[in-house]
Amino acid sequence: MTSPLNHLPSAKEVGTYDPDTLASNFSDLHPPLTHRQAMIESQRCLYCFDAPCVEACPSDIDIPSFIRQISENNINGAAETILEANILGGSCARVCPTEILCERSCVRNHDAECQPVLIGLLQRHATDHMQFDGHPFKRATSTGSHVAVVGAGPAGLSCAHRLAMLGHQVTIFEAEQKPGGLNEYGIARYKMTDDFARKEVEFLLEIGGIEIQYGQRLGANLELATLHNQYDSVFLSLGLGASRALGLTGEQAPGLMPAVDYIKVLRQTDDLGSLAVAKRCIVIGAGNTAIDMATQMARLGATEVTLVYRRGVEAMSATDHEQEIAKANGVRMVTWAQPDEILLDDQVRVTGMRFAKTHDQAGRLTPTGETFEIAADAVFTAIGQGFEGASLSDTTAAELARDGERIHVNEMFQTSLPNVYAGGDCVKPGQDLTVQAVQHGKLAAHAIHQALVAKQEAA
Amino acid sequence: MNTLTFTPPGKKDSGDSVVNGVDLSVNFAGIKAPNPFWLASAPPTDKAYNVVRAYEAGWGGVVWKTLGEEPPAVNVSSRYSAHYGKNREVIGFNNIELITDRSLEINLKEITQVKKDWPDRALIVSIMVPCNEEAWAYILPLVEATGADGIELNLGCPHGMPERGMGAAVGQNPDLIEKVTYWCKKHYSKPVIVKLTPNITDIRVGAQAALRGGADAVSLINTINSITSIDLDNMVAKPTVGHQSTHGGYCGSAVKPIAMNMVAEIARDPATPTLPISGIGGISTWRDAAEFIALGAGSVQVCTAAMLNGFRIVEEMKDGLSRWMAEKGYDSIEAFSRKAIPQTTDWKHLDINFKTIAKIDQDLCIECGRCYIACEDTSHQSIAKLTEQDGARRYEVIEEECVGCNLCQITCPVDNCITMVPQETGQPFLAWDNDPRNPFRVAS
What we know:
The structure holds two protein chains of two kinds. Chain A is of the alpha/beta class. Chain A is built from 18 helices and 17 strands. In chain A, strand 15 and strand 16 (406-407) form a beta hairpin. Chain A is globular, with a radius of gyration of 23 Å. In chain B, the strands form seven sheets. Chain B has an eight-stranded parallel β-barrel, surrounded by seven helices. In chain B, strands 7-8-16-13 form a four-stranded antiparallel beta sheet, with no helix packed on it. A two-stranded antiparallel ribbon of chain B has the order 1-2. Chain B is globular and about 80 Å long. At the A-B interface, loops of A face helix 12 of B. Chain B: Belongs to the dihydropyrimidine dehydrogenase family.
C-alpha cells in the first residue's frame, strides 16, 4: 500500500506519459540478445583456463563452459551448466551487478579488447531459451529427513531446491502471499519483467519435494522453537525486512515512505497509471534501491527527482552503471548533504526537506553548519534495510548469537543453535546480493545434508 | 547543359598495370596480363556477362569455365555447401557443379567477342573432352579461332566428369596427362596450361608428365574430394539433392595450406625447375597471393573469395599487393617470385642446433591462461602459473623446459603478446644428415 501518498495524484492524473509510454518505460531495461547476437557474443569468449570470471562469480557458475555451449547452439546444455551452480540463474542474469563481478574481471575488459563479454546477457539467453522435457535435475533417493526453510526468497529457494535434489523433504514458510522474496517484491520493475520471478519459482518447484506455506511470519504466527522441534533441520533466510528510519520528527507524515514499500506496490500492480506519483520528490540513500526508486519515479512521470546522499559519489554503494541509469533518466544527484528536518505544511504533509551540508573531517562525516532546502511532494528513504525486530523474538530465536544486527553463522552456515542454519541477507557475511544469497542457500543445503547423513549413519 | 564528369579520387583505372607506382603486369608462359589476379575456371567465368563484369572490376585475367563436347553437361539443383567457422565465416567451400551447361557455339561466340573487346586482359579457355585425340583435334581449332590467349586442360574435376572418363580420371593417370597434353600441343599453337588434381599422392608426378607432354605451364590445385557436413536430422550430406548427396570438390581458404605445399613441391622439383605455375587454392587476399608467388607461382587464380564477396575484392588485392611490393622494393611480380623456395627444404636439412623459446609480454597479457593450459596439458609443461600480490595472474615461460614449439603463441588471442625468441646457443649449424645421433648419418 502506498497510503502515505494517498493525497498525491496518480501517474495517469499527472499525465506525463500516456499509457503506452508508461508501459514501455517499465519494459526490459536491457533487452535480451537475439539468437544471432548471442552467437556473435558467445564467440568473443576466449574460453579462459581457470577463468577470472568464475572466480568473480559468487555462485561459482562455470561461465566459459556455458558460453562455449551457447556458441555450439547447445542451449539446454548451457542452461544446465548455469542452473546446477545457481538455480536462480535466470533472475541473477537480470539483477546481478555483472559490471562489478564477472564482467569486470573478464579478460576482455581491457581497452584493447573493446569490452568484456556480455556474460549476464548470455546467461539470460541460455536460461530464457532452455526447453526441457521435465525438470532438468532429479531427486536422489529419499533420505526421510524433513527440513524447514523460513523465507521463500533467493536464499531459501536455493536451499530448498538443493535439499530436495539431495533427497530431503522441504517445507518453506513464507510471510508474504507469493514466493520469490526481493525478486518478486524488491527489484526494479524494468529489470525483471513478464512475471519472471513467479515463473522461475514454478520451474524451481518442478523438482518436487518442496511445499510452501504462505502467510507464515516468524515472530508473528510462527515460532522457531516449533520448527526446531518438528523438523530435522531449519534454514533461516529471513532477509532484511525493516527499512531504517531517518530518526527525524514527522517521519510518519503523509508524503514520506520507505522506498522498498513503494517498490513492492509498483512491482505488483497491474495498473501503472493508478500509482501515486510525486511530481517533485526526494530519494535519500546511495544504494541500488535508492537508484531504483529515483529512476522508477522519473519513469512514472515525476518531473523533478533528486537523490541526496550524505557522502560523495565515490562512496555510493550503487554501481557506476546504476548511477548512469539514474542520470540518463534525469535524476539529479546531490551529495554531501544529510537530512536535517522534514518540512511539513499546516496539514502536516511533507512539503520538502532541509538538509545539512556535510564534509569529511579527518575521516569523520561532519556538518558544515550550512543548510539548504529542497521542495518536494514526497520523500522516499532508502538508507538501508535492517532486521525485522519481531522475527527473532520468541524465546528460542532470541537465543541466536548475532553479529551486530544480523545472525551469526560459521563457515558451515550453522547458527549458534544446533540444527539451525541461516543464509542470505540476514547473516553477517551477506553482501546483499541475490547471487550471494543463492550461493548461501546452496552451500547451506550441502552443510545440512552432510550433517543429516552423518546423524543417520551414527544412528 | 554541361554534364559533370569526374573520376572519384582513389578510383584507379581498373585495367592499368601500374598500381601505386608498382608494375603488376605478368607474362605467364607467354600470356600477358596487367596483373597476376585471374579468375579460375568456375561458375564466375561461365559466360560473357560475368567475365565482362570481372574485367570491369579490374581482374587481370579469366579462365573461362570449362568447355566440353556437345551435348552440354546437365547440372543438378542444389550445388554448393560450406564448412563454417565461428560466426558463419566460410572456411571451406564445396561444389558438385559440372563443366559448362551452355552450348559450345554460344561459349565460343562470347569468348571471341570478349577477347576482341578486352584485348589487354588474359583470356584462357578451360577444356575437357574425352580422352581420345579426335575429340581434342575437333575442339582445339574452334577454340584457337576465338583469339583467346591460351588453354587450360581441366584434368582435375573430381565429381561427375570422372565417371565419364574425363577430369580427375585423366589427371590421376600420368600417362594420360602426358598424352592429352601432347595432343593439345599438336593441335593448338598457343600456350597450354595443365591444371592438376590434388587427389593423388605425389603432385610432382603429374607436373612431370605434363612437362613431358610439352605443357607450357601447370596450374594447381583443382578441388579436393570432400563432404563438408551432414544434416543430422535427415542423415544426408550437403548439398542435398532430393534425399541424397554426393562428394564434391573442396576449395576456399581451408585448402590454401595444401595448395601451397603442392606448388612448392613442383617449384622445388629438379625435374620441373622452370615450369611456370599458376597458383590456385584458397587465395582470398593480397597476402595469400604474395605467398603463392613467393613459392613459385607466376599468376594466381581466385574463385571462392569472389563467389563469396563479388569481383570487387580484386581492388584491395591489387592495392595491398602493390603497396607491400613498393615497401619491399620489388618492382615486378617476377622480382619476388620463388623467393621463398631456397628456404623451403626437407626436414632432414633443418638445423638441429637451432633453438627458440617463447617470451610473454606481460604488458600485453590479458591473463586468459590459454597458453598455460595448452602447454600444461598437451605440450611440455613450460609455462608457470603465478599469482601476483594483488591477485592478478601471471604466466611465465620456464625457459629451460621450453622446446620452442610455438603452441602458446598460436593459442594466445593477443597479437604479439607471445613471441618466439631465437637463442644464441654457440653451436654450429648441424643438419640431421650429419647429426651423430642419426644412425643413418652421412659421414661428413
